[in-house]
Amino acid sequence: MATLVLRSAGTAIGTALGGPLGGIVGGALGAVGGGLVDGLLANTLASRRSKAPQLAEIGITHAGEGTPVRKLWGRMRLGGNVIWCTRFQAVSKTQKSTSASGKGFGASTKVTSFELSFAVAFCEGGDSVTLGRVWADGNELDLSQYSTRFYDGSEGQMPDASIEAAEGVGAVPAYRGICYLVFDLMPLGDFGNRMPQITAEILRRPPIPDPDDVTNTLRAVCLLPGAGEFVLGTQVYQSSDGFGAWFPENVHTPDGIPDLYSALDQLDATLPGRGAVSLVVSWFGTDLRAGTCRIVPKVETPYKTVRPADWAVAGFTRATADVVSQIDPATLDPTGLAGAAPAIGGLVPAFGGTPSDDTVVQAIGAMNARGLRVQFYPFVMMDVPPGNALPDPYGGAAQAPYPWRGRVTCHPGPGQPGTADRTPAVADQVAAFFAAYTPMVLHYAQLAVQAGGVDSFVVGSELVGLTRLRTGPGDAPYPAVAALKALAAAVKAIVGPGCKVGYAADWTEYHSHRPADGTGDVLFNMDPLWSDPNIDFVGIDNYLPLSDWRDGAPNIDADPVAGPTTIYDKAYLQANIEGGEDYAWYYASDADRVAQRRTPIVDTAAGQHWVFRQKDIRSWWLNAHRGRPGGVEAAAATAWVPQSKPIRFTEFGCPAVDKGPNQPNVFYDPKSSESFLPYFSTGSKDDPVQRAYLEATLSYWRDHAPVSTVYGGPMLSTADMYAWAWDARPFPDFPGRTAVWHDTPNYELGHWLTGRLGEVPLKWIIAELCAAAGVTAFDTSALMSASTLVLGYATDALMSPRDILAGLMDAHQFDARESDGTLAFFARGNVRVTALDVAGLAVEGAADPGYAVTRAGETDLPGALRLTFADPYLGYASCAVEARRNTGTSQSVASVATAAVLDPAYAADTAASLLQQAWAGRETGTVKLPPSRLALDPGDAVTLGFDGLTMPFRITAVETSTYRTATLVGFDPSLLKVSSPPQPRAGWPKVGSYGPPLIAFVPLPPVTGAEPQLWAPRVAAFANPWCGVDVYRGNGGGGWDYAVTVETPSVMGVLTAPLFPGPVNRWDLGNVLALRLAGGGQLLSLAETQALAGAGALAVENAAAGAWEVVQYQTAQLTGLGRYTLTRLLRGQLGTEGAMGDPVPAGARVVVLDANALAVLPLSLDQVGLVQRLRYGPSLVGPADPTYTEVDIAFPATGLRPLSVSQIAGRRVPPSLDVAFTWVRRTRFGGDGWDVDAVPLNEEAELYDLEVTDGAGRVLRGVAGLTAPAWTYPAALQAADFGAPQPAYTVNLYQVSAVVGRGQVATAKVFP
């Protein structure tokens, strides 16, 4: 009988459980094991015989009867099945156009659009199903703009009221067990008046009872990022670049909900038992020297316009606050893959700014409203940039960049020549630090009260470099501890007795001070604080190591027979909570750590080993403390009363990186000098090891915390174990939006729980499938590896459990086998390895060696492997990563496709691992097993020694006949862990936000005369993003009447340098028009003929004159993003020479004139010159929205005003001294032709006014109502005006309109 990995065993189990039908079901489940036999490792180029889910099918919405209900685990973007819809409903809307006369409205146009109500079902539902994002035709929807209802498919689900109203009560199923989304009367205009293709992000957590799973045990989290000016806001904040582009400060999901609300919603959905949040809020330290360190709030940039309220913290404003250091983006992300956008001079902020006070109040209020206990956690980030040149208290040439706050100390530091430690001088330095630090803490204590109060308040954290400073040797006072006591008293007086107050000590700090200086001192320096009546709990930021694991030798913690065999073993990790490093033993040197030479921790003097065990929290809490200055135990105990106060893990956690439990306190942050990987880590992403650490820690203390005889509660409650960390920025927007947040590269290997706790353990998927198939004899205890968490996976059709699992097995590196009547699922790397010696194999005669080994040629193996998966950061689009061998001649590419959602970095690691495994499997063979190896099963690993070689193999099948013959394939468990370089992440673009637009009401002369309402101003507008701009006019009754919509954005900008007057009627070759355009607008150089034909026209505002000059250019030179210098100018076009300034200053507005973009503000002639109240803003919202801007403005009838005359001349009329003045009339439009003697009049009558001035502006004689372009100035009048004829006369000439009166003045000095 042949035993493959699972196929026939599954059938046997199914048959035993349920007869012939059970055999079919069990066989379907069991056949999953064939994935090892006919999959990649056995024959890389052979296709699978199973039908795994196809990613392309999962995202398509159908409408049909009998469509299978999809199964989902984790998160996935799913298409669905339309289960109900109404008929299309026509909606007619009448739109009116403004009449040419400006009197009311002109013709009406009837526009018809359609609406539709429908429901789309997505997958199997239940109580643990939630809705994420929704797409229509591939574009994310803002569901706040639609009437929708989501049903999770729970057993208590009732029929939808709208469907019942349409179909009849009692005629509609409740669709229990199915999640679906209902749209009520969805407007279809944006979708071509048809039902759009709806897809949705659905999150489902299988209902598998597991009391030790982190989602059931974790009850408190720390809320990051701690820095971000408006990240904590629950109202919408927007910022602008000042050029019409608005960006959300705290809304990055398409539903328009502030990020904090979205993040808290995700927390609620992920952790049903969550009860507390530690709110981290940061100020910034500036120096590691305590005496000179400032603690201040900072902003990200001094240049930002924010609405509805700008940043303010503790009396600081954006104008008065310090700015966080600005650094090269490559410092934040050495790979250059995150695409951080430059901010100041090509640099980006090293940190987010301190959260604005109003957002902190909002965040506390929001969490209180949800019933969450808020722990307020003031935090100090050290903003010490590279190249700082600050003296280093630790003796370096300069202070290390962006250090840990725990390194703030005296100067010179402990152990340095001339140190202030253990001298009276240290007290002054510590006092200077707390003088800077205390205002921050007290400010937040007051703010917490203002916000409605918090459950607890932490007065400081991890100031270990200060709390170990003392004013003398031995048990001299510790001034920082005394300062913390005073601070705790001040905080308690503010927050009141109902708020618990504590300090969060570093895990190396809470216990005692045992300086490695040869004195033998053991000093319980923190006990004065812990015993203080104003301190309610002992806070520990607990990052104690729970493992000492190595991939290679030595690895003395591993036991291949009795276990542990993997770092993910919960029993192994729990054994190190009160055991292992820092409890039973320590490493005396780095060399000892490498060699695993362990030194026992023993108290040879008094036998109180806990005194030296940093990890022995239990004994520290249970016992009285007696210091040992100079190594001699004091007679009296400290003020600490055993069991008097609870312990609280104010932080605990583990990075999601290979071997994180080896050193859980380290973190990945390339800009910081503190950035490290854990001991012996490969640097690969490892979410399961983080989860294993959390589950081990939480369940251990839940079950093993002693109960106090003083206060009757546990020493440590899981309710007060705050995991580091949840993020206030929702997943996957963080870390997906790389252009928004510069810390996104740190997420991959960091401590973040957001997005990770929603991953589904493989064992849950298998348990659910086994339950569906009626299989109860299964074992998933060996599913322990870096690949046993599933971010998302869904089925696309009716399929067997074997087919469902087939799509996961390569992607998540696991297999299955039958063992002793049980289906055993195991991680590929979590196998026992047995050494086989050829001398001990069974043989058939002397010529039979008992084994055979075959090596495949290179051409039979892939040179590259492509893994296709769904990328959660790209809207679950199908993406691929490729691993390629750097050596060898094979050109073939193997493809592995999965419908699973994978993190791109994990996918890259997996592709590399699969490729290496394929090459390791080039050796195949068989061995005849002796009876002593009866325990070997398919899936086990063996080594075979022959001809001086030892080769690793894996058993893929065992056939039992005369002998038990095992089929082997080359296998090396070490290849299952591959650390790939960081992967490019196509980050999401920086999203826009609809805010107040740029707008200009431009009174322009006509060009053709055919323009509507020549007297009305043209409206130019720009915004980014653009949705149109509506203008409303006040109706005098407190309301607003719609006026006009600007449907097309104009190219607008400002002058970046003054613009001086220039010549008219010829090229201005002396002036340069320098400008910056909003939104990176573009201008092109023109041919001279194009400019002379009217192209390249701009309007430049002369605000002082209330007029706009029309300027044309020929040459445009790009000088920066959106910045140009324009030369070869034509000035004062269309008769606007009077609008030239002397000069027009920098900052003046500029509008590129485009008739297709300019709207006309409806204006009657009666309204010309009258002040009007206008409101304008985004078309998506109405005039009451805060994005609207209100102005009072009056408009001249520029389009009706006659142009200035030209060619003013005068001559004497002999023999008299009379002067005959003449001029040439100009026209407002229609005067460009060359074949006419005179331009069209374009006025009701030809009329002029003339003034003779004294040259200084005083009018000496005025003549009105001239009907021809000529007038004679008699000598007698000259004498009357001047006393005698003059050699020159200054005259002002106006053409007169019957509607608006005088036109533009033309002034000339005439020499007759």
From TrEMBL:
Pfam families: GTA_TIM, Phage-tail_3, Rcc01698_C. InterPro entries: GH, GTA_TIM_dom, J_dom, Rcc01698_C. CDD domains: GTA_TIM-barrel-like. This is Host specificity protein. It comes from Lichenibacterium ramalinae. Residues 437-735 form the GTA TIM-barrel-like domain. Residues 799-959 form the Tip attachment protein J domain. Gene3D superfamilies: Glycosidases. Residues 1050-1151 form the Rcc01698-like C-terminal domain.
